[in-house]
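Entry for the shared binder. Reason: the reviewer on the internal report wants the predicted structure included alongside the sequence.
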Amino acid sequence: MLAFVIFAMSFAVVLEIISGSIRNTMHAKEYTEVALITQSVMDQVGLDIPLESGTRSSGELGEYKWELEVNPFEGSAEVSRFQEISEQTGIELLEVEFIITWGKYPRERSNRFTTVKAILSDQGGLNS
């Protein structure tokens, strides 16, 4: 009888380990897909998606919904030097914000990615 109880408890522990591994694998799959979608959409900025201040774009790929917004780069006090250089060189810095959401309520998840891109001010919309 004692051997059966020990076996049952050991089996329950093994099942918990296996279910945790499966759960981790599913999360890794989701985050890999998020990274691939994000990279794919960010690569389109300046090509298919205009690289201009005020641009907004959104889309859906399967269960993943995304929104992209391009705004002037403001930064913080430490980066004010970059803005001065930008004004002197004619290069405009734009912040590209990408938000991707997936899953269903109440387990909906989202990630936010930002990057800074540069364009020539007098040729707005061209990626440099």
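Summary line for the report: The chain has two helices and four strands.
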